[in-house]
Design a protein that fits this description.
The complex is a heterodimer of chains A (270) and B (326). Chain A is of the alpha+beta class. Chain A is built from five helices and 15 strands. Chain B has eight helices and twelve strands. In chain B, the strands form two sheets. Chain B has a seven-stranded mixed sheet with strand order 1-2-3-4-5-6-7. Chain B has a five-stranded mixed sheet with strand order 8-9-10-11-12. Chain B is globular. The chains are: A alpha+beta (270), B alpha/beta (326). Chains A and B meet through β3, β9 and β10 of A and α3, α6 and α8 of B.
Chain lengths: 270, 326
């Protein structure tokens, strides 16, 4: 968030610099780079890496992590992002981070038996890099991103259902569908799309505390977990998600979840 | 300019129109010579029929280079004064439009008519504070609701061109029907679909039709308030009206119904394409990168406006596809 005075940001990355360079163990030419090789040359990046990926995190900026979004946010409350990390080996988790959002972490996705791809919409406060940090089984973080321009204001205004009060009548209502093919899969894949009704309040609008879906999981008809996700305040109101499977999950699927106030969700996807 | 016979006049007008269209086809831009350094829109009043003028903007998206002048405004001279149709995107535009009218006609401006709620239809109103500014009830409500965000957005997109601009809202409610001013009869029809209230104005004597936001000629339609089904119905209604010249708010003036047909082709394609995408489970980003027919890719403002179309309209198709089957 650029509401921070520049001097403070500078001081912080000066402090962060030696640690970051040391643990990444990059060559001498990169060692002089305060951006740690970040193609967006974004000042918050080195702090973000330590905070969200870990002090000793090994990072590779990797074009195989494809993050796609619109070039500009026509609706900063609903910026669509699609992440796909194919061909980098088995993926443990995908963490989506937005450098210049007041709340930077959008979601953390553990694909389990699903493909390493996910789509969602989020609230963008101002123009920013949008990043996906994808951790493979060897512990390495592969980082990709895209730049989204914005007129601003996505995190600090209320959503539609908060304004008209209708959120309480639809809370946690779920609709979804398993599509017999997936644009993200090679051939025999399928795609699950889900929509969960929730105001997803960021806590940054005066008098409205943070209120958001915090955990979601998709189970098969035997109750086995197929995928799991932690979601945070910047995910858009009434979130829509897409997940891709390498094949077709057998039987009907179940979505379970909870929000930060303890409201539970348990819905069958027909 | 006075021509005795209407027949003769129409031959002249048709010729002028044909020449104008040919000139634009070659240059791609209307006659206006924008001077960014002097913030001069270079507005030109082009005669379409006796007393009926169009002031053409660039067929493009808002940009500093074109002064954010992308709208066709107009004015009609009557024996009882001048009626202005839309006032442009800024205070400066309004002032330059009023000066242009004063250079063109000895008659005073007697009223302004706004065809819908979008910003370039009324942000020039500061130059018309002394005359009645009229719009339908729904348009007035919408302008009141959106004015602040329009100001913010156009200041961001257009920079210095917007200096001193503040929204001055209409002060009179207009009902559909026939407005008689001097010897003229102006027929007003309220349609909908581009916005909740799309006013269409026909000058009965000349057959010039100001189609407002319902028609986009060789330009991707804007859709922040659109309802595609209603819009298509309105295009059918528009096609049933008799007119000799059609002035769309965006894109070239034409003496046929091709502007209506273009808008219809686009909206029908968009409706089919978005529905099919939603039924295949496509994400917005995949739709943004999917194939678009070459005709539409070649239209003005494609790169930005299609992205907006997807943001505005695709969620409705998605929700329909995800809803449980009844």
């Amino acid at each position: 968030m650029v509401c921070e005075p520049v001097s403070r940001v500078r001081r912080r990355w000066l402090v962060a610099l030696p640690a970051g360079v040391f643990v990444i163990g990059l060559g001498a030419s990169r060692a002089a780079d305060p951006f740690e090789g970040d193609p967006y040359k974004s000042h918050p990046w080195s702090d973000m890496r330590r905070e969200f990926l870990g002090r000793d995190a090994r990072v590779l900026f990797d074009e195989r992590v494809r993050v796609s979004g619109p070039p500009f946010a026509e609706d900063p409350m609903n910026v669509p992002i699609t992440v796909s990390a194919q061909g980098i080996g088995p993926v443990e988790r995908i963490v989506v981070l937005v450098d210049r959002n007041p709340i930077r972490k959008v979601l953390e996705y553990m694909p389990g038996g699903a493909l390493a791809s996910v789509s969602f919409r989020f609230k963008l406060e101002q123009a920013s890099p949008v990043r996906a940090a994808v951790q493979t089984r060897d512990g390495l973080w592969h980082v990709g991103g895209t730049w989204v321009d914005s007129a601003g204001g996505g995190c600090t205004v209320s959503g539609v259902t908060r304004k008209d009060g209708s959120w309480s009548r639809t809370l946690m209502q779920t609709s979804g569908k398993l599509f017999p093919s997936s644009p993200a899969a090679e051939s025999q894949g399928s795609r699950l799309r889900l929509r969960v009704m929730h105001p997803m309040d960021t806590g940054l609008v005066g008098g409205i505390p943070a209120f958001y879906v915090s955990k979601l999981a998709v189970l098969d008809d035997k109750g086995r977990e197929l995928l799991r996700m932690n979601t945070f305040e910047p995910v858009s109101e009434n979130p829509v998600f897409s997940f891709d499977f390498p094949g077709h999950p057998a039987g009907s699927l179940r979505l379970v979840g909870i929000d930060n106030n303890g409201n539970r969700l348990d819905a069958r996807i027909e | 300019m006075r021509v005795a016979g209407l027949q003769g006049w129409w031959r002249l007008a048709a010729l002028a129109l044909a020449l104008g269209l040919a000139a634009r086809a070659a240059g791609g831009q209307p006659a206006a010579a924008v001077d960014v350094a002097r913030l001069d829109y270079g507005l030109v009043a082009r005669l379409l029929a006796p007393g009926v003028y169009v002031v053409e903007g660039a067929n493009a998206d808002f940009s500093i280079a074109n002064g954010c002048n992308i709208i066709n405004t107009g004015f009609i001279v009557t024996s009882a004064g001048v009626v202005v149709i839309n006032t442009g995107p800024s205070r400066r535009y309004g002032e330059q439009l009023r000066a242009l009218i004063a250079r063109t006609s000895a008659q005073p401006v007697v009223q302004v008519i706004h065809l819908n709620l979008h910003p370039d239809y009324f942000l020039g109103n500061q130059a018309f504070g002394d005359v009645p500014r009229r719009a339908t009830a729904d348009t007035r409500t919408g302008m009141g609701r959106e004015a602040k965000s329009y100001e913010d957005n156009l200041y961001r997109l257009c920079g210095d061109w917007m200096k001193g601009t503040e929204a001055v809202l209409p002060n009179d409610t207009l009902a559909p029907g026939v407005v008689r001013i001097g010897e003229r009869e102006l027929e007003l029809r309220e349609l909908r679909g581009h916005t909740d209230s799309d006013l269409v104005l026909i000058d009965r004597a000349s057959g010039v039709l100001f189609a407002g936001g319902l028609v986009f000629a060789q330009r991707i339609p804007t859709t922040p308030h659109a309802q595609v089904g209603r819009w298509l119905e309105s295009l059918d209604a528009l096609g049933g009206l008799s007119f000799k010249v059609l002035v769309p708010s965006h894109g070239p003036v034409r003496s046929d119904g091709e502007g209506i047909a273009m808008t219809r082709r686009y909206l029908q394609w968009l409706d089919r394409s978005f529905r099919a995408a939603a039924e295949q489970g496509l994400e917005m980003n995949e739709l943004l990168r999917a194939d678009v027919p070459a005709e539409f890719r070649g239209w003005a403002a494609f790169a930005t406006e299609y992205t907006r179309n997807v943001a505005h309209l695709y969620p409705r198709y998605e929700q329909a596809a995800l809803a449980p089957r009844k």
